[in-house]
Every structure is written in C-alpha cells, then in structure tokens.
Fold this sequence. Notes:
single chain; alpha/beta; Signal recognition particle alu RNA binding heterodimer, srp9/1; Rossmann fold; Helicase, Ruva Protein, domain 3; 6-stranded mixed sheet; 5-stranded mixed sheet; 26 helices; 17 strands
Amino acid sequence: MNDSGQIRVTERxxxxxxxxxKGGSKQGxxxxxxxRRRAALxxxxxxxxxxxxxxxxxxxxxxxxxxxxxxxxxxGLALLQDQPETIESITVIDGTQRVELDLTQDYTKxxxxxxxxxxDLGRRVQFTYTEAQAGQVNRLVQAADPxxxxxxxxxxxxxxxxxxxxxxPMVVFIGFMWWLIGRMxxxxxxxxxxxxxxxxxxxxxxPDVTFDDVAGEDEAVEELEEIREFLSEPQKFQAVGAKxxxxxxxxxxxxxxxxxxxxxxxxxxxxxFFSMSGSEFVEMFVGVGASRVRDLFEQAKANAPAIxxxxxxxxxxxxxxxxxxxxxxxxEQTLNQLLVEMDGFDATTNVILIAATNRPDVLDxxxxxxxxxxxxxxxxxxxxxxxxxxxxxxxxxxxxxxxVDLDQVxxxxxxxxxxxxxxxxxxxxxxxxRSNAQLIDNRALDEAIDRVIAxxxxxxxxxxxxxxxxxxxxxxxxxxxxxxxxxxxPVTKVTILPRGKALGYTMVMPADDKYSTTRxxxxxxxxxAMGGRAAEEIVFRDPTTGASNDIEKATATAxxxxxxxxxxxxxxxxxxxTTENETVLGLNATSRDFSEDxxxxxxxxxxALMDAAHREAWEILVRNRHVLEDLATQLLEKxxxxxxxxxQIFAPVIKQPRRPLWQSDDALVLGxxxxxxxxxxxxxPDRHAAKAxxxxxxxxxxxxxxxxxxxxxxxxxQPAPGPDAVGPDSADAPQDAGGAxxxxxRQEEWRQW
Length: 753
C-alpha cells in the first residue's frame, strides 16, 4: 500500500511534443598533516633513491680523480713522435686501450678556436686509441724510448671479484623485489593487497557520535542501547548467563539514519569501529571476497571489543542461487565465508556485527537465522515529533528568525527521512546565503521544501498566455476535486510556476501522520488525479499531454487496488502477480500467477475505476464551475496560492456526498441474522465450527435469534461498518425512511464498482 503519510503532489508535466547523517568522525587538520608527514618520512624510497644517487655520483667522481688529465689522441701521438725528450715514462694499458704519459714538464693545451685560452694540464696526461691504431702506438712508444722506460699493463680480475660482479647485482635485484612485494602486500591499498580488508577504522581518539546526535528513532535507540551496555560492561550480562546478539540488522528506507545509529553505538561504547561497504568485498579475482571477510574479522578480534559495520550488506548477502554463476559464484563464496565467521564468534569475543540494508527481502535466510543476525531493527521514516527533533538537531549552527517554527516545518514534511530534513535545512541556508541575508526565514524554508519535493524552479522556462491558462485550469481542477472530495486530505498549496519537470503542481498534505489508506481515500486520490485532465476537457475541449504523469500514477493506484488490496468485487481479496526475490541479470523477476481470463478481468476493473474517477471529477468541476473559474483567475494573477488563500476560495464549494458502505461480497450481510449460518456449521462434524457457533450465539444474547424484528426498519439506521468499510463517517450519509440515499442512482453505481 502506498504510504498515505507522505505528501501527494499532482503535477502537470512538461513533455516533448506537448506539456508534458549527521555523523561520522573527523580529525583535525594538524593531525592529518602531521600523519601525512610521518608517513612520507617513513617511506623507504625517500632514503634509497638519494643513496643510489650518491653512489653513482661518487663512482663517477672517483673515476675522474685518477691523476691523469685527458688529451686528444692526436696530441698524444704528437708527443710520442715529435717531443719524446719531454716524456719521462709511458704506461700502455691493454683492454681499455689507454696510454698514460709522465712528462718532465707541464703540458699546455693550445686553444682550438678564437676566444679560448691555453690550459695547463700538468705533467700527467693520458689519451685513448682504437684497435686500428694499436700498431702505430706500439711503434711510437718503442721509438720514444723514455728515460723511465715504458710498461704494458693487462688488467686481471680475481675469482672473488668476478663472483662479486656476478652475485652483487642479483642480490640487489632480489632484495629490491622482496621489499617491493612486501610493500605491495602489506599495504591494503597496494597492488597485492587485494585480499586484505579495506575497512575504515575509527579509533577512540576520534570525535564520537553518540545517541544524543540521533533523533526521531527512539525505538531503534532503545534496541541498540543494550548493545552498548554489553560492549562497555560485558560482565553484567555474563553473570546471568545472557548472550548478546552476534549480529544486528538495521533495515529501512535510504536516508533514515542506519549508518548514524551504528556509529552512535560505537561512540557510546568507546570501541573501535570498522566500517565497510558490502560492495568492497568482491573484486574481479576469485577468492578475494572471502579473504577480505577473514581479514576484517581478524582485525576486529585483535582490537576487541569492537564493532564491525557492513553497509549495504545486500551486495553480498543476497539469496544464494539467484545469480548466473551457480554454486561457484564469487559473491556466494563471500557470503559463505561471512556465515562461517559469524558462527565462529565466541560468546566472550566482544565483537558485534552491525549491518544495514534497504532490501531485507532479498537477503539469504541463512544470514537472518538466530545465531547470526539475532536482532533486526526497523529504521523507518520518523513521525511528526521525530521530524521536529531531527530538525532541531540539524538546525544547530544555523541562525533563524524568531518566527520560524520547526514544528510547523515538521508538519509540512510528512514522509521525509532524516536525510531529506537535513537537505531541507541545508537548502534553506544556501538560499539565505545566496540572497546575502543573515538569518534563515520562513520564505527560505518554504522554497527549500519545494526544491526537495519538486526540484528547483525553472525561471527561464517562459510559457505563453495560452499555455499558462491551460496550466492554471489544470492545477485548479486538481485542487478543486481534492477540496470537494469527502475523504481527501486538505489542499495546502497550488502553483503554476515551473519547477523540475513539472509546469505546475498541487500539494495535498495530510494533517497528521497516517499509516494506512482506506478504499474511499484511494478512490478520492483517483478523482483528484483525473481532475486536471477533466478541467482541460471542460474548459478547452482539447486535452494536452500535461496529464500524462497524473494518468500514470492513477493507473498504478487503480491496478494496486485490484491486484494487491482486494478492493473490487469481481476479483476479490486476492493478491495477483507475486514479485519473486530471485534476481536474474540484476532484475526482479515478476511472475504472473493468474490466467488470461483473470488478466482481462483485472484490466476491466482498472478501466472501470479510472472511468468512474474521471466521471466524478467531471461532475465536481461542472457543479463547482464558478469556483474553478475563480481559482484559475487567482492562479493566473498570483501564480502561487497557499492554504489560507485556498480556504477562502473553497468556501462555496459543494462537496461530494459520502459513499455508501462497501463490501466485497453481497453474501456478507451486516447487521442481519447470521446465526443460521453458524447453526448449519454447528450441525457439521467439525467440532471447532460448532464451538465457534456456540460462542457467537452466547455473545449475541437471547435477542439474537430474531434480529430482523429487533432492528427498526423505519429509522434507516446503518450498522457499524467492518474493517473494509468506509468508517464511522458513513453513518452521516442522509437516509430516508426506507433506507435509501438521496443520490440512490449514484450510490448504486458505486456499489456495483
């Protein structure tokens, strides 16, 4: 059933071709910067790279400081050939093909180009030669015959130096690879750390989130309070033999504060908090998910007492066998490992697993059995008092004018979650800052609520006069049908300002929180949903595509009335079209478990409900045509009408009479003799039916035997309705002496539906 406690917005959509948690812990900036500096200084690469660079530079420097200055080969050969008397000794080094000359006087290198000056290279010089020049060099050396003689040197290496040259590079390479692999596998974000858990750890030193930061979820807080007590005082429970739940499942719509509640438990208990998303377990490599599950639980046990929080657990906890991978699906292996780890919890481990999901219906039954997720806590959208409390929490630090009433804001936001309310106040603060104001006022809050519901206003979308008139009558039709209906919620706002995808919208808001919807209320929703289309037909005789969204929503409601809610006679109280939990290729498979004849009956019932709603909307608008014209004129003039303005406009509205009592079967008689039915059942061999008949006869008293004579026929009084009836207000429908309604034809028509 649709949540009737939410705001209902009927909008005229624009279509092509027509009209279509507070929470979390933060560290200070100085601590973060200090941690980054320490991590950077601890990086071995920062020490290894400079060391290698110094070794290379030192080797090059030592090689250059051999005592001999290099000269050109031509200059060396000229010394040997033309100035042998200046040479004291000669050393020829084979292998490197180098000749070292010790001179009797300093050698001056002459400049080759203009602007260069002569350089004194000292008495020790050397030059190199090629293999082709080896014979020439040998002849010149022998011919020079220096006084100190000459010598030929052949470089030789020892066995240990050869071994060192062979082994040392291998040792350096193996050592570097060993360090690199250890680095990558030790770091959880490294290339080989895919098997390690990526859980984010919140320590005791971080700013804590407590239950004081949680508002609007008193029942959930009470359920989690003893979890906190067990983590902080486990002896209290162990003394009486109590076992704390191994797992707590938080389920509910998105934005209701499931993650905030888990952080609040850890903050209250002052224990480490390991948070991880369900999607982070599974990677492309086989076995990674199971490895990460093991590593996560090992970390938590090493830091016990601790809390493990897995957000969106349905990513790994879906019903097994629902995918295409069979029994070896990686997600199923991850789930199996999670089940094993939860079974391995010791009663004294002091590690609690808290998981959150908004799809509890798709979770594997083995995950939800007692001994794993023992406790399941529903986290729903808050009621009016809860919304007011949440608004006060998020209003801290936001200056507001004195006339702002957060209770009224809570009243105007039924169905909003905590995240929605936080978004409303944030949008109001942004709008206030945009207008260069200092205080948040009611205007900013109104605009923020509209932005959250229908999107930002489209100021650049300019409509011509005809389109504006069509939109005004369209929205006036919605509002007038809602105001004239007997079971509809009050209309609080009507506007023709384009916002989001809508060219205008009508806001119908319940006065209080509602948790169920009656059949008559659903019928009225169909009526005012078709009010916009009916107004276009009455005034312009040319409907537009602006009612497409209204027709879509109304058709969905009518179909649910037939297939889900059992609110038609021909189909009855039967649910048709079960949605399976199995998932194939990521889509929910819906099987049609009824025949073609029943499908045709369903379509006929949906069409009958839609046609009846359209006719009733037409009747309301024709009967209140003067109000329709007045409302449309006011909309064209002011563009937006609020509840106070609408009360004055709707004062002369002729409201629809209440519908008669409805029952799904004519054989079910209200307020008449039903004793005979139970008497016949008592004569059957079923002893349970006989006992029930006897109890009913005793409860009805001695006058129950002739109820027809006891009921005054002339008064036309209606008996109390049953659970599927309209309610006590149905007795207010005018009746004549014969029990007939003034609108007998119309009521009989509704009875047939």
